[in-house]
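Field log, afternoon session.

UNIT: design team B
ACTIVITY: writing a sequence onto a fixed backbone
BACKBONE:
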C-alpha cells in the first residue's frame, strides 16, 4: 500500500473526462490515470498542447488515491498532477523534503498547467495513499477497437470485456429469421410445383381425348 508525499494539484474527475473526450484520447482511461497507457497518452497530449511548459516538467506524474476496501465508490473525485513524488516506505522527514523546494521554472510551469486544465485548484504538498497501484483499469476505446479488429482478422478467441457480444446477439436474431424465411420459400416452391402438377394431371386426360385433327363434318343427306 504505497504512500506518497507529492507536490502538485488535484485534477477533478469531471474535468479529466471532459479533457479526454475533447482531445479524442481513445487510449486514455479517465477513471485511472496511473495506467501506463493512459499516463503515456496524457504526456504526449500535454507535450502537443503545451510545448512551452512540458520541458520544465520532466518528472510530471499522475497519482491516484485508492482504498481497495471501499466497494461503493466507482472512482475517486480527483487525481493528482505532480512535478515531485516521494514514496514513503516507513517514514519521511516532511520538512527535509519540502526544504529542497521546487525550482522556479518548474513551479511556474506547474501553476500555468493548473490554470489550463484545473483552474482554481491549489498547488501544494499532499500525502496520498494508494491501496492497489496495479488496480485493473477499464478498457479504453482504442483497446476495444483494436481487440475487435484483431479478433475479426485473425479469428482468435481473445476478447476484451464485452467485445463481440453485440454482434453475436445480432447474428442470433437474424439467422433464425433467415432460416424461417428459407423454409417458407422452399415450401412455397413445393406447393407451387404440387398445384401445377395436379393441374397438369387434370388437364392431361382432356387433352388426350381430342385428336390432333378435328373429325370431318357430316354430309347433307338428299331426300
Amino acid at each position: 500500500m504505497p504512500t506518497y508525499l507529492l507536490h502538485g494539484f488535484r485534477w477533478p474527475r469531471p474535468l479529466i473526462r471532459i479533457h479526454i473526450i475533447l482531445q479524442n484520447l481513445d487510449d486514455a482511461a479517465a477513471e485511472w490515470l496511473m495506467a501506463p497507457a493512459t499516463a503515456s497518452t496524457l504526456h504526449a497530449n500535454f507535450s502537443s498542447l503545451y510545448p512551452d511548459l512540458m520541458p520544465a516538467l520532466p518528472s510530471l506524474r499522475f497519482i491516484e488515491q485508492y482504498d481497495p476496501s471501499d466497494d461503493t465508490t466507482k472512482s475517486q473525485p480527483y487525481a493528482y498532477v505532480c512535478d515531485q513524488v516521494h514514496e514513503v516506505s516507513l517514514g519521511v522527514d516532511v520538512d527535509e523534503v519540502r526544504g529542497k523546494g521546487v525550482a522556479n521554472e518548474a513551479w511556474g510551469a506547474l501553476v500555468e498547467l493548473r490554470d489550463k486544465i484545473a483552474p482554481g485548484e491549489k498547488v501544494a504538498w499532499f500525502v496520498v495513499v494508494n491501496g492497489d497501484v496495479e488496480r485493473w483499469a477499464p478498457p479504453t476505446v482504442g483497446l476495444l477497437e483494436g481487440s475487435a479488429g484483431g479478433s475479426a482478422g485473425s479469428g482468435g478467441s481473445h476478447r476484451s470485456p464485452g467485445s463481440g457480444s453485440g454482434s453475436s446477439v445480432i447474428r442470433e436474431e437474424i439467422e433464425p429469421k433467415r432460416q424461417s424465411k428459407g423454409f417458407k420459400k422452399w415450401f412455397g416452391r413445393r406447393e407451387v410445383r404440387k398445384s401445377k402438377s395436379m393441374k397438369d394431371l387434370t388437364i392431361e386426360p382432356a387433352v388426350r381425348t381430342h385428336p390432333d385433327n378435328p373429325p370431318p363434318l357430316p354430309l347433307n343427306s338428299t331426300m
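LOG NOTE: The two ends are 136 Å apart (CA to CA).
NEXT ACTIVITY: expression trials, pending approval
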